[in-house]
Amino acid sequence: MPSPLRFTPTPIAMAWKGPGLPHETVAVPQIHFHEGDALVEVEYATICGSDIHTTSGHRSAAPPLVLGHEQVGRVVAATPEAVLHDGTALAVGDRVVWTVTVSCGQCQMCSRGLPQKCQKILKYGHERIGRGWELNGGFATHVHVKAGSGITKVPEEIPAAILAPVSCATATAAAALRATTRHHSIAGATVLVSGAGMVGLSIIAMAVTAGAKVVVLDPAAERRAMALKFGAVLALDPLAGKLGDALDSANLAAPAAAFEASGAPAAVKSAIAVLGIGGIAVLVGSVSPGPEVGIDPEAIVRGLKSITGVHNYTADDLRTAVDFISAHWNTMPFADLVGPGYFLHELDKALEVAKTGADVRVGIRPEQATD
User: Is residue 324 a part of any domain in this protein?
Assistant: First the structure.
């Protein structure tokens, strides 16, 4: 273990102790740096659905842990070996986001180009607090960013509330879009997006920018309205009628790509069934155990259809997400996707607000903000 370093003021983290229990404030007076590590002061963090699932007891996790994996911050200390994703040296003062995963870069998965499934993977906001890596989640004043994280600089002019979710929803959307480009371009094609939460809306924004005609399915009227603001040509209630009839009425071709971001089994089945010849279904939302979904193998074979899954993302996807937000943050309504902000000591209150099912991210600010 390397010699510990002390920082002033002392970094603070909020430790989750288990479902139904309040968070506890934990002071971390010493940071144990290894080569390539850095310390980032959190500017803003947002509450993801997985944080809600964990605190509600719907997702397995071993407390105590520091939740939070959507955040933006500024580097306050870095080892000489610490680098950005492009290989340039990380510098004190850099405003950054980083991948949700820490990868070793050497295992079989990393060697195959799948660092997001590294055999030694660590995940911010998901790991039990351990000696030497106590500041391992975004609900803290600082995060200990480990070597093997994909770190990307972000522009100064973009509001922190827009940047925080980039390291989750936007980067996942970038990974989903990349999955289609391995097969064909979506420019000019019909694209289906099931589920218009933050991941789905990010997919819509990227697909529209790529020239696709986006059709959205979501049972919530508010989400359908937001999908239209992001450029969807059609936003439908999946319970209101047959999708095929709606596409025909709008003179839209069968989808060349279908992105399933809700995780609902019926939506998964529909996304696969509605594909046109040569189409690809990208499953993003099925991250929890659920009932099996039957498929018609003959339809897959004769229709030359593909089905792929996206889980986590790579450092390249995060870079793509940052570039996209940098180009479109002030021309698309991303600011409308982040709602109320709370201070770090109000985390339990913020989580209760987030659990109400609001369609916006709830923000966490470590320090008193000045307007």
Answer: no
